[in-house]
Structure formats: structure tokens, C-alpha cells
Predict the structure.
Amino acid sequence: MNLISVEDVHAAAERIKDAAAVRTPLLRCDWADPARPLWLKPENLQPIGAFKIRGAANAIARIPASARANGVVAYSSGNHAQAVAYVAKRFGLRATIVVPENTPTTKIEATRAHGAEVVVVPITDREIVAERLVAERGATLIPPFDHPDVIAGQGTIGLEIAADLPDVEAVLVPVSGGGLASGVATAIKALCPKAAVIGVEPALAGDAAESLAAGHRVRWTDEDRARTIADGLRAAPSDLTFAHLRERVDTIVTVSEEEIRAAVVTLATRARLVAEPSGAVTTAAYLNRTADLPQGRTVAIVSGGNLDQSLLAELLTHPTP
Amino acid sequence: MNLISVEDVHAAAERIKDAAAVRTPLLRCDWADPARPLWLKPENLQPIGAFKIRGAANAIARIPASARANGVVAYSSGNHAQAVAYVAKRFGLRATIVVPENTPTTKIEATRAHGAEVVVVPITDREIVAERLVAERGATLIPPFDHPDVIAGQGTIGLEIAADLPDVEAVLVPVSGGGLASGVATAIKALCPKAAVIGVEPALAGDAAESLAAGHRVRWTDEDRARTIADGLRAAPSDLTFAHLRERVDTIVTVSEEEIRAAVVTLATRARLVAEPSGAVTTAAYLNRTADLPQGRTVAIVSGGNLDQSLLAELLTHPTP
């Protein structure tokens, strides 16, 4: 299995730097444990509200001119959909997005608002439908995580962390399909070799944690993984991303649904950031998995901020379900 | 009346650059009117949740070594209090903060958490009590806006806007005591002379708008100005700040309470930013005062994000009072 290199990530950074991804700052948290100073990397502030714009931009930038007229297709539980729609529009490409039927309304509407065609299907059919559209139209599939260009694009977050806090000691990164964690770990292990890279998953979708501990991929059903409130973390690693996780991620910790809900509230009230549950898992781990994490300077990646207004209001009113 | 110069603002930027103020990015809003592209300047992401850290840092950095042992005193409706407390702690100075009794609990607790002594008094007594503390202790008063060093510190926001978006055409800035607007207008008019600088006030605390239209300071009572939900915008300009506003701010527009409440919700759901009502007035103006604003590239300063969790939940559930 060929893993991506930090040179691939540097090339991605060069390729996407004018593609509307924001250079997000590190935000120091004055409410953190002094023994483990905490900085947030607020990727919820990207134009589409999530880090996914980085991988989508790198993959779309590499489509050959001859294939651009046929457009792009993506399947996604939400943020990748918006990212592909947004970037495709900037490049002048037609985008068709296949989303599972449990996707939050906010995300479907936002995807349509970027000019994409949205096809809603049962969660288990999304890859098949996307592949059929690719075959029919000659379009290019932009996978949500299982592609070296997507992984390299997400890894640009790691380059920015290394540049802004070169003596970082721990980086906490959400794990779903593993593209973000694979890319970030590639950059951090190359540039800050002393730093630990810790994946974070909801316990209810903890297949990657179990797989990493077992040393091989353990399959959970889609239905099992769909139980978590963190709707962006319901995918499972591929062979490609699992190979990166095994090689470059130190460990994966899991957090409970209650811890995730409380972390959304902490981020809103203490860090003034609206994070979706998937984006709050790293803060949940920081606050609750102390014994499992290294001491020292910690960065938590807040991966996205797209949640329905009613859910945000509910969490602020009743953090405990 | 001597106004500050852009050189004073450049000097402030140099002085505060290691004082923990974040270099906030401009965030492009994909939901904006294409004829008036909108960028947010998210000062709610500063360590104390508001721009006030900039002015406080510049003023405290200039206290002579001989006076430091006597500490600093400030009076404030909240965010300036936290800023002075936070910066004083970093400089190793004792801080005493006088706050009015209608200050949100969040802000009082946050100020104490930064190690400051907090004295709660009726809103009309705060300046008197602060001056008495200064006389008794030989401490240095850090005023919330009526001081050239504070104005110059807040103006560093204008430098960053000019650097990141040199062809900006309109800058929207909240107006209370006028320190932020004075500083930002000084930087923008020097560096981007074609850009309009528009102040924004709640209509219920619209004394500066009325004063600017009249060409002289019109006094509103503290009680009148206390009616707005935007608790950070209840102060009135001083002679010093009003002189800056007259010379360098193009106009001041006002927004309703309902527009402010709705803008808090828009920022949370569309921009993933938690803004307090005072920080949301510029977005309210962008969305509702279209006829009064220039066309073209617009920056709205989101000045702060400290509001009680219960108020944020209420606004998300019932934006209309």
C-alpha cells in the first residue's frame, strides 16, 4: 500500500491556496488545564463550514481539462457534499451529490444552495448510485476520503498546525473514514516528529479504534455506526486510510454521546464557536480522556460546524439527553 | 482636539503583537448578496471573546515600570473588564474591575477567572468608584475607550482588514463609546481611502447616530441607553472619540432589537460564530439597512461573543421576542 508523503501535502497546499480555503488561526483556550494548554483549529470557519473543502479542492484541481465538461459526482453524509458543490462551482464544473436519507436538512439545503444537483438515497445505496452516475455521465468521482489527493488536501491542516505551533505535543483529530486523520498525521509526523497524533471517535461508531487496537480492520454495520449523534463520523476507514492510521496515528480514543453533547456547549460558550457534534469530539476527548492523552501543548481540530438550529438550541438548553 | 494617527496604530500593532491577541482571519460569507460580498472579522475569537484585548494591551504595555506595582483599575460593562484582567495577569499586574450591576453573569465570572478583583456598583456610579480606587491606590486607570492608546489598540483591526482585503469598499463597525470605530476608521481612511466606514448602533442606544447627524454631541440618559439587548453598546462617545467619529466615520446607521436578535441567529447558523448582541449589530445592518450602505466589498466587524448560554438558547429558539 502506497502512503502519501508530506511532499504530497505541500503540493496540495500550493494547489489549493487560492481555492477559497481559509487559513484558520490557532485559538488558545484560556479555560484549559494549565498542564495541557489547548489550542483549537477552527475548521468550522471554512466557507462551507468544514475542513472538507481542502481535500475536495485538491482533488478537483487535479481533474484533467478533457474531463472537466463531464462534471463531478460525490457521495457524502453532508460536509463533503457541500465542499464538492462549492469547489465545483468555483471551477465552473457541474456537480451531482448523492446523500443518505438521514442527512440533516441544513446540509442538504446548503448543498443545493451551491448549485449542485442533490440525489437522496438510502444510506446503504449511496456508493452504488454514485458509481452509476459516474458511468452514465463520464463524470469524475470525488470520494469523501478514499483517495490520495483528498487525504493530501486534508493534510494541509497539519502543515498549518506545524507552522503556527512547532512545539505542539499532541494533535487530536476526529476519525470517520480516516482521510482527515491520515493527512494530518502525515504532516505532523514529518514536521513535528515528537508530537502524538490521537484519533477521536464516538464510542457508538468506534470501529476504527477497535480496528487499530486489533491491528486489522474490524467491520461494524452501517446501522451500528449510524447510532451516534455525530453524523459526520459514521463512515469506516478504507484499506488506504487504515494503512495511514496504522503507520502514523498513535492511538484512537472514544467519547460518549453525553460527552459529545456537552462539548458542543463548551465550544459555544467558552470558545464562541458553533461546532457540530462531529466537530466537538476532540474537545470532548480533551475534557474527558485525560488519562489517555499526553500532557503538554495540545491542538484539537474542530472539523465542522453544520448542525440544525433546533439541535443547537436543544443542546444549549438540555445538554444531557 | 488631537486625533490619533495611523502611525499610532502601527506602533500599537508592534507593541501588542506578542500580547496574546489573535490575528483573526477575514471569513468570506457564501450566503451574502453577490452585489455586496461580505467578510466577517471575527473578534469574538480573541482569548477573552472580544476585540477589547487590543486596546487594553496597548494601554497596559505603555504603563511606566515605576507605576506597575500599583496595578490597574478599569470600569466596564463587561468585555473591557475581561480584557484588562487578562492582559494585566499576563503582565503580572494587579487588576481591579468596577462593573455595573446589570452586567451578564458570564462576564463577571470570566473577569474573576482571570484573577481580577471585581467591584459591582450601580451603573451610574462606576466612573466615580473607579476614580476613587485610582486615587487610593496610585493605580493606573485603563479607560474603556476615552484614551488615545486604547483607540490606537482597537485600530489594529483596521490594519489587518486593509492588509487582507486592500480593495475593501465598506467597513461596518459597532459604536458604543466609539473607541473601536475611531481606531478602525483611522486605519482604514489612511490605508484604504476609498472605503466608507459606517458605524452601527442599536436604535435604542442611538445617541452617536443622532450626534453625528446633528454635528454635536447629543446626550441620552444612561437609562435610555440601557434599554437595548446589546449590553456592550450602552456607553456614549467622549469628546475625544466623537472628534474621531466626526472626522473619519462616514455615517452611523441604527438597527432594531429584532434585527439584532435575528443577526445573532444568522451568525450562529450561517457563519458558525457565537456573537453577543453587540457583536451582531454590523451583520444586522448588512442584512437590513441595504439602502443606507454602499454597494461592494463589505467587512462587518463581529466585536464580541460573550453572552449567557440561556440567552443564546432563547434566541435560537425564539429569535423574535
